[in-house]
Amino acid sequence: EWLVKGILAGEATKVELRLKGDLSAFPFVDPAQGEFSATARVRKGVLEYAPGWPRIEDIDAELSFQRNRMDIAGKSGSILGAALHDVKVSIPDLSPRAPRVLVSGQAHGATARFLQFLQASPLRESAGRFTGAMSASGDGRLRLKLEVPLTDLRATKVAGEYELAANEVVLARDLPPLVQAQGTVAFTQSTLALHDVRARAFGGPVSIAGGTRRGSGAMEFVARGEAQPAELGSLIDERLRRLLTGSAPYVVTVTLRDGLQRVSVESSLRGVAAALPAPFEKAAPDALPLRVDYLPSDGGERDRIAVSLGRLAAAEARRARAGDSMQVQRAALSLSPGAHAVRLPERGVLVYGSVAALDLDRWRGVFASGAASSGGTLPVSVELKAARVDLLGKRVQNVALRASGDSAGWSAVVDADELAGQLNYRAQRPGQLVARLLHFSVPAAAPGAAPTQARAGDLPALDVVADSFNLRGKNLGRLELVAVPEGADWRIDKLALASADATFDAKGRWRAAQATDLDFSLQATDAGKFLARVGYPSTVLGGKAELAGSLSWAGEPTSLDYASLGGELKLSAEDGQFLEIDPGLGKLISLMNLQALPRRITLDFRDVFSKGFRFDHIEAASAVDHGVMDIRQFRMRGPAAEVAMSGRVDLAHETQSLKVRVVPSLGGSASTLVTIVNPVAGVASALAQKVLKDPLGQLFAHEFDVSGSWADPKVAKVSVAPPPTETATQ
Fold first, then answer.
1. 201 contacts 171 by C-beta, under 8 angstroms
2. pLDDT tens digits, one per residue of 179-206
3. How do the domains of the chain map onto residue ranges?
């Protein structure tokens, strides 16, 4: 039967047959009963030596039958395209009691053919489980022995060796190749072993050993080598990979049991420098133990990936098969120092723990380029504490954050030194951020942070309310901000500040051309308290004031660019008093105070100006062009004097060129003196002051040129002609 089914094709020549004896004793096992022999030269033969094994083709061999034994001595042939030599096939006993086929031979050819041979033979259930996902280029040499019991194929015995010769072997699709691989792969019908396998992988040398465990049937292979992060390929995100330098030793253990492949990776990471943001920065000499475990289950339908990084971080992901890929069902990242067991959410992704520092700006920079990760439909939750967080060039201190979100948006509760309250973000374009805060202070710049520049079209809609708003340490009261994208612009519908002593209302637009337009109105019920609130204490006592205008400048709404500033301003104030102030502190306020003028007045008016000036009313209007304010009209009236001012003020360079006219109100004092001497004359004099509008004040009017810087103004007196005699007479 084997002869009929096993020898499938071929040409026989030089056939010789010797048959002698009683055919009832065929095939004459006992030489005394007779003789049987047959020989032939076989060419182009095809032999199926055992069911389920690849055929031997293109056989050039000698076929020989001696009594009850068959031998085939092959000179050449091929199996799956690999060249064969020294092939021997024999059946020591052709009797039906226990027929066995013995096959031995050698082959030389492509390693890819050897891998194909393993998968095309019954070895796919043993050695083939390890090599199923492998591919290779290069050649090797195979030595193979088979013992096939024809009545029980399951009892087939196999002994083989394959020698790799400078091959390139890919163990799995997602792994970089083993290059210059050499060594021996030994196998039997149930075992596989690697002997002295050496190669280069991940930019360094690697040695691989291992095989089938006795008794368990599981296979275990251990690879020890030195790896460079730059050579890890798809095992690590390219954006992280470029920040890792050096090399480190590693050990990879692969275990195959019940058809599932488990993998563990361990490394001290000593020798690798990580230029990553806090808390993952690392110097090359430092050790930071890394362990990664891949554990499949449910026949490969599910798996678990666990990662630990010293006492710094731990992560875990649970995945399930979806078609041809594995999809994350739930995952967690723990940043709690010393954490061991990772707390997984019921669904989605959880990030939790506490860190000393979290530089989100640098992390944003790390992931600013490259393809975005897919599978972002899972809900994400964050429970994080950080002593400091750097974001958008600002530093926030003592942060406690609880947040959750998905592709539709997120919500968060934050408590930090700079802000506390509820945040909600709707992701549907153009996006909207709603914030209801108990307090909000504009954070200080993070040390060494590069200036950030946003674009109007990048901002979402904002709806922000902060019960207490602080800017540069100044409490400006309650903040309300409503803004929406409009085309490529960002329209500010409402910007309002309200405190006990003032209200500020504005609206405007941040244009796509990186310019800001703002219409505003500031009303102070107590100008002195308002100025103290915004950082100018002891400049004005009391007073009501209103400042309104329309301004435009190049740049963001949060950065006033004086060099490009333009627009109109109007000021109205009443019933206040300027106090003695430092010009460097009061800036423009000091110009109206006039305390520097007495040093230039020959008459002694220090009691009028030096300790401050009380005003009944102020009206002012000015135009601003490229940061230069043109004061067209300034009138200030008080019990002691009337002041008129005109000229230009350079807001960018903090200089001025002004003309100031001071008209002291001397009439009231003169009439009081006359009344003491002559009451009737005093009454007449007082009436004259009212009717004639203080001719004595006009008589002693003075004009001054004010120049120089705000911090050190230069005041020069200008000669003024006395009023005409006829006007005085009238």
1. no
2. 999 999 998 888 889 999 999 999 999 9
3. 1-121+136-157
